[in-house]
Write a structure and sequence with these properties.
Largest sheet of chain B: none
Largest interface: A-B, 98 and 102 residues
Strand content of chain A: under 5%
Number of helices of chain B: 15
Strand content of chain B: under 5%
Oligomer: heterodimer
Structural class of chain A: mainly alpha
CATH architecture of the domain at 56-228 in chain A: Orthogonal Bundle
CATH architecture of the largest domain in chain B: Orthogonal Bundle
Number of helices of chain A: 11
Distance between the termini of chain B: 34 Å
Distance between the termini of chain A: 33 Å
Helix content of chain B: over 70%
Radius of gyration of chain A: 23 Å
Number of strands of chain B: 0
Number of domains of chain B: 2
Shape of chain A: globular
Largest sheet of chain A: none
Structural class of chain B: mainly alpha
Number of strands of chain A: 0
CATH topology of the largest domain in chain B: MetI-like fold
């Protein structure tokens, strides 16, 4: 295909990305602002980062958020992968329509509805709101995102590999762990990361399902944002962005390396 | 080696396959049942509870509603409860014009924002799809990256830009384009900007994936036959990208209707959206039954677009195979 890379195309991409990135760049720039006024530049300073680390409430919230994120993302990755396998491999079983509905609906469901309904469930079964309930809520939401990510990889998976393994006598479970899992691993890893960042990011569902002692970082940021924009929040946001960006970069480098290794293996195999 | 021997001899294969098949049946069932039960309990059952609570009355207690349809008194108690069900919360919603206005405004705002997002997102997706194949993965990564940064942070960043003494007004004032700061923050305009900005990746990604698959020789053929570029766009490119357009619009529209963070932070107290109304009923008024009723109606309003979305997803899944 001959791709014409016209001036119009370049302009729309440049403008589009400027729109996407400018607000984040400004936010990062103003976190290094000496002045307390967020919109007036008063010289370079890292004092907001220093004061951030002395803000005990914010530090506690960060710790809670990190724990909720890791636990819920891990459970969600297991559940989401199972759901993805169910969606792609088992096309006929009772209640499949309902199942796929329950996987896809949370992706677009307004968060206020999901949050309220989960809260009412926790109250109905008598669970005290807190760390545990937020983790359960995040697991439920993020497993659906994991399912979609893993499913898109499974759909393009070459099943003859599995058939070959089973023809050679490998039991299904062993086939899964030795053949299928390594192949879909990149999707599982990015599913986990997506789940983790969604959990890190969520304000609405956490506000509904959390209780005393389990204030997450977005809840803390939100309550401070309502009082006004401060460089300290900019600093907190910058750190959050940096953590996620580093994670994404590491994951993509690892992915690239695996890809290169795979190609090398394939070439070696062909030379055989 | 024993495995090869097993496949070579048919009689031993059937003997070995039976326990394997039994084990496989068990594993299969487990694979399906675990996520199924999880979603049933944490996604579907909660909706039933929301509906139940929406029929109860507000009470000053914890939890702040009177119990309805309890099985604690046995079946007779349940039947008695059935007779006492009250739809007061729903009548309340219809009597107070505030709720009706909030639903209608939310639908209109979400609709306009979706169209705006499509207008902003289409050229980006098109430019990406026509970019050299080596650049495309990088561009794709750049669209996905903001998705990884916090939604709350991205909305928050706009406050500093849009407020009267914010960066946008400072820039426009220093360029002498305006003589007085524009009031954008705490208006519907700010909400539109916030939704378009936050949901842009959701629009661009499905658009890109359908535009990338397109056969561009069709356009060349149309132009060779004398069709002007705009005509070729509306007759060929747009119709072929329609699945992406539909998926993108649904991904933006449905969550935008119930959006809370954007109207709350950028729209201020003057703007009305149903997500914010529900939040306030719950957190400020502590009226759980009414907020449940608001949620039930919102869910009913969104049922049709959500079903469309699921069908589109299922179709995409079938095509992927």
């Amino acid at each position: 295909m001959n791709a014409t890379w016209s001036r119009f195309n370049i302009t729309s991409i440049v403008l589009g990305f400027a729109f996407l990135y400018l607000p984040i760049v400004l936010l990062i720039v103003f976190s290094f602002n000496e002045s307390k006024l967020v919109t007036v530049w008063g010289g370079f300073s890292t004092k907001w980062y220093v004061s951030l680390f002395h803000n005990q409430g914010l530090m506690d919230a960060t710790w809670v958020t990190a724990r909720v994120g890791v636990i819920s993302a891990t459970v969600a990755t297991v559940l989401g992968t199972l759901a993805a396998i169910t969606l792609t491999r088992y096309t006929r079983f009772k209640g499949r329509v309902l199942f796929s509905g329950m996987v896809f609906a949370p992706l677009v469901m307004p968060e206020v509805i999901t949050g309220l309904s989960l809260l009412l469930l926790f109250v109905a079964v008598g669970l005290d709101r807190g760390f545990f309930t937020v983790t359960l809520a995040h697991t439920t939401l993020t497993m659906c995102f994991v399912a979609v990510v893993v499913q898109s990889r499974l759909v393009s998976f070459d099943r003859s590999l599995e058939e070959a393994a089973m023809d050679l006598g490998a039991p299904p479970v062993k086939t899964f762990f030795q053949i299928t899992l390594p192949v879909i691993m990149p999707a599982i890893v990015s599913g986990w990361m997506l789940a983790f960042t969604l959990s890190l990011d969520d304000l609405v569902i956490a506000s509904f399902t959390s209780g005393p002692g389990a204030t997450t970082l977005p809840m803390k940021i939100y309550s401070q944002v309502r009082l006004g924009v401060t460089p300290e929040i900019n600093a907190a946001c910058t750190i959050l962005i940096a953590v996620v960006a580093i994670g994404v970069i590491i994951a993509s480098i690892a992915n690239k390396r695996r890809e290169v290794q795979r190609q090398r293996d394939e070439q070696a195999a062909q030379r055989g | 080696m024993s495995n090869i021997a097993a496949t070579a001899a048919p009689s031993s294969e059937t003997a070995a396959a039976l326990p394997t098949r039994l084990a496989k049946g068990f594993v299969d069932r487990l694979v399906i049942i675990v996520p199924y039960l999880w979603l049933l309990f944490f996604f579907l059952v909660p909706f039933v509870i929301v509906f139940k609570i929406s029929l109860s009355q507000t009470a000053i207690s914890m939890p702040p509603y009177t119990p309805v349809l309890d099985f604690t008194d046995g079946v007779s108690g349940f039947l008695a409860g059935l007779r006492e069900l009250n739809f007061d919360n729903y009548t309340w919603l219809t009597q107070d014009a505030l709720y009706f206005n909030a639903y209608v405004t939310s639908l209109i705002i979400a609709g306009i924002s979706t169209i705006l997002t499509l207008i902003v997102g289409y050229p980006i997706a098109y430019g990406m799809a026509r970019a050299p194949a080596t650049v495309r993965p990088i561009l794709l990564m750049l669209v996905i990256l903001p998705f990884w940064t916090s939604f709350l942070i991205r909305v928050y960043a706009w406050i500093g830009i849009l407020k009267p003494e914010g960066l946008l007004n400072q820039m426009l004032l220093s360029l002498h384009l305006i003589s007085q700061p524009l009031v954008i923050l705490n208006t519907y305009t700010a909400i539109f900007i916030g939704i378009v900005y936050s949901y842009l990746p959701f629009m661009v990604l499905p658009l890109y994936s359908s535009l990338e698959k397109m056969d561009y020789s069709l356009i060349e053929a149309a132009q060779d036959l004398g069709c002007p570029p705009t005509g070729a766009f509306w007759k060929i490119t747009f119709p072929l990208s329609l699945p992406g357009v539909i998926a993108g619009c649904l991904l933006v529209f449905i969550p935008a209707v119930g959006e809370f963070v954007i109207p709350d932070l950028l729209g201020g107290s003057q703007t009305l959206m149903i997500g914010k109304t529900l939040w306030n009923e719950f957190f400020a008024n502590r009226d759980w039954p009414v907020s449940s009723a608001v949620a039930v109606i919102l869910l009913l309003v969104l049922t049709v677009p959500i079903m469309f979305f699921q069908q589109a997803q299922a179709r995409a899944q079938e095509q992927g195979k």
